[in-house]
Each structure stands twice: as C-alpha cells, then as structure tokens.
Amino acid sequence: MRMILVGPPGAGKGTQAASLVDSYRITHISSGDMLRAAVKEGTKLGNEADGYMKGGKLVPDEVVIGMILERIKKPDCEQGFMLDGFPRTRPQAEALDKAMTEVGVKLDAVVLIEVPDAMLEERAVGRRSDPETGKIYHLKYNPPPKDIEGRLVHRKDDTAEAVKTRVTKYHSETAPIVPFYEEKGILKRVDGNAKPDEVTQRIAAVLNS
Ligand code: AMP
C-alpha cells in the first residue's frame, strides 16, 4: 500500500500514521520529522529549513521534494509507504506523481483528515511528544504519564501564533492538492473530530472499502 495522509496542522496525522503503519506494515515517512532531524543535526538542509519552520511557514518546494523523492527510493519503501505531511503544495503533488509514474508505481489512497479550524489551535498548542518513544500526547485530551512529563518536547512551531500561520498556509497552499487527488479518484475523506482510536477505525474503514 502506498498512501498519503493529508490534513491541517493538529488534525492528528502523526498520531494516526503511527497506528496505521503498524497494521499495514508500511514505512512511515513524515516530512516534518525528517526536517526536524536535519535541523537538530545541523545539516545544510536543516539550516535552510529552520527559519521557515520556526515561523510556521512552508519550506521551499525544491528542498522538500528532493528530500522525499530520495527517501521513497530506499529499500524499506518497496513494500509500501505512508507519507505524512508531504505533499503540501500542488507542485509537490505533481513532482511526486511524475516520479512515481516514471518508476511504474501508483498511489493507492490519499486520506484527508478533516477537523474544523476552531479546534486546531488548542490541539496543536497542547501537543507534547516523547523523544524516547516518538509517542504524541495532548496535555488535556491524552495526558502523558506523570513520570515522563519532564522529558516531553513542545515543538517550537506549536505556539498559537505559528499555528495560525500554519492553518492559513494549509488553506492557501495545501488545500489545492485535494482536487488533484479527487480527480484521480483516490481521495478518501475522514472526519477527524473524534478520539484517536475512533479516527483510526474510520480510516481503516475507508481504506478497506
Ligand atoms: P509537520 O510536522 O508536518 O507539522 O511539519 C512541520 C513544519 O515542517 C511545517 O510547518 C513546515 O515548515 C515544514 N514542512 C514539513 N513538511 C513540509 C512540506 N511538505 N513542504 C514544506 N514544508 C514542510
């Protein structure tokens, strides 16, 4: 299975990806995680991306496209992959389409997780992740165990201000990829306004239908 998870910041893409890649035995590729790792390591790509990411802006297409097209060529993607956070612009979607057509593989599904804008800021600002396990928590909706609270990370771009920019960018830059996949007949919409397990079941249902 080769698929994409699309949705606004705070829609739950990362949380859902973690459950789904286990059931479908495919490789999880998060462009945001890859960029954050590059920033941490201080690579050329990371230094270029850092300024954009802090403010909640999109990293330029040419940087992200190269990074992802290289990644999906790796052997662990042969059995399938789940892209999370990529593509985020129409040129990114077109570049992915071209690269996959060239090697003769197809996307099976694009899952759009829909969550009303009014809920996104609270979801993102309360989000914390555990650097040891990669698990994602929410201070109110999915509180972490007390003994790991001290090591949790609050993303630099999960501030109210950066989230507002990211939501605006989602509507102007990312939403145009929806009709692109709708025309191909592979877009599946899922209501993401529910508990994580319920959303996972809804995604599994549309993927199996
Ligand atoms: P995420 O973890 O998916 O929320 O991504 C965090 C940040 O990384 C975004 O706000 C962007 O600055 C950058 N980023 C991640 N994926 C992309 C992408 N496909 N295109 C451009 N920028 C991206």
Give descriptors for this structure.
single chain, 209 residues, alpha/beta, Rossmann fold, five-stranded parallel sheet, 7 strands, globular, binds adenosine monophosphate
Layout of strands and helices, then pairs:
Elements: E1 2-6, H1 13-24, E2 27-30, H2 31-41, H3 44-54, H4 61-71, E3 81-84, H5 90-102, E4 109-114, H6 117-125, E5 127-129, E6 136-138, H7 160-174, H8 177-184, E7 187-191, H9 196-208
Parallel strand pairs: 1-3, 1-4, 2-3, 4-7
Antiparallel strand pairs: 5-6
The structure holds adenosine monophosphate.
Residues 9, 31-32, 35, 52-53, 56-59, 64, 85-86, 88, 92, 157, 166 line the site of adenosine monophosphate.
Structural commentary:
- The structure is a single chain.
- By secondary structure, this protein is of the alpha/beta class.
- It has a domain at 2-26 and 109-204: 3-Layer(aba) Sandwich (Rossmann fold).
- 49% of the residues lie in helices and 14% in strands.
- The protein has nine helices and seven strands.
- The protein has helices spanning 13-24, 31-41, 44-54, 61-71, 90-102, 117-125, 160-174, 177-184, 196-208; strands at residues 2-6, 27-30, 81-84, 109-114, 127-129, 136-138, 187-191.
- The strands form two sheets. A five-stranded parallel beta sheet has the order 2-3-1-4-7. The protein has a two-stranded antiparallel ribbon with strand order 5-6.
- α1 packs across α9 (196-208), α4 (61-71) runs parallel beside α5 (90-102) and α6 packs across α7.
- The radius of gyration is 16 Å and the shape is globular.
- The chain starts with a strand and ends with a helix.
